[in-house]
Design brief:
The chain is mainly α. Helices cover about 60% and strands about 0% of the residues. The chain has 13 helices and no strands. The longest helix is centred in the middle third of the chain and has 25 residues. The protein is globular, with a radius of gyration of 18 Å.
Length: about 270
């Protein structure tokens, strides 16, 4: 059963987690930032606004409302098999997380999709705001994939709501510039993608960029051979971002939105 105002709940969860992590990384930073935070946050928060406007304009139906329509009609695998309750909740969360992992790999593998996703990788530092830095076109494609998954699997509205909250929360967490004790990180990354684990994915080296694709569960990377434990240059010395986008002055909101139309350079695997 859904709460009365699921959109309000999602927003409150997002704002609360964002504020908490922003405070935590200010107190316990993992790395020294190389670009002024105000400069980066203006662009990253601008992208949040652009993404929200695009979704509102293009999608009167979102995954939760689609799930609410599909369930009473008996559409989707879970509904056909009569999978409900805790089994549906856990299976739905795991399968949606796996789909997001696979989608992430596709956005790195297919050149046209990489044109969109590389905007996320142009950030020259990582902090909680990077977890929101996705091009509006990528958000549209991701939303369509989630809607297709919800419809085909017959996932319940409550599961979709919980997944959206978890996905937002873990994206903010694993991009945070947060110093966790090494023992905590070592144990935590057995069940959750940690900031140190995901930071490898933002390395300037393509071989490291094409690893650690998970947002929530770390198991997919380990099971499917895309796990890299640590960056080769270490967390303090590693360079974040892409080789072709190193000028912070050219990474404002409008230049970021134009990145899909910048000529594509084939990446080496080094």
């Amino acid at each position: 059963m859904l709460p009365a105002n699921p959109d309000t709940l999602r927003l409150l969860a997002f704002l609360s987690i964002f504020a908490l992590l922003a405070l935590a990384e200010a107190v316990w930073p993992r790395r020294q930032l190389t670009v002024a935070k105000v400069q980066r946050w203006q662009a990253n928060i601008g992208i949040i606004i652009a993404d929200s406007l695009v979704i509102r304009l293009l999608f009167p139906v979102v995954p939760m409302s689609l799930a609410a329509t599909a369930q009473p009609q008996g559409w989707g695998l879970f509904n056909l098999l009569g999978v409900t309750g805790w089994v549906e909740l856990i299976a739905g969360l795991l399968l949606l997380d796996l789909i997001i992992y696979l989608q992430h790999r596709l956005f790195h593998r297919i050149p046209l999709l990489w044109r969109l996703h590389r905007m996320h990788h142009t950030d020259l530092d990582l902090d909680v705001s990077t977890g929101t830095r996705f091009h509006p076109f990528e958000i549209v494609i991701s939303l369509l994939i989630k809607m297709a998954a919800v419809l085909l699997l017959g996932i319940s509205p409550l599961t979709v709501l919980l997944f959206e909250i978890i996905l937002n929360a873990t994206s903010l967490f694993n991009h945070a510039n947060l110093a966790l004790p090494s023992a905590v990180d070592r144990w935590l990354r057995l069940v959750l993608v940690t900031p140190d684990m995901h930071r490898v994915h933002h390395s300037i080296y393509p071989k490291e960029t094409d690893s650690n694709f998970g947002f929530c569960q770390p198991w997919w990377d380990r099971l499917l051979g895309t796990y890299t434990a640590q960056p080769r240059d270490g967390h303090h010395q590693m360079r974040i971002g892409l080789k072709e986008f190193r000028n912070a002055d050219q990474l404002g909101l409008w230049p970021l939105l134009k990145i899909p139309f910048v000529p594509y350079r084939v990446r080496s695997n080094q």
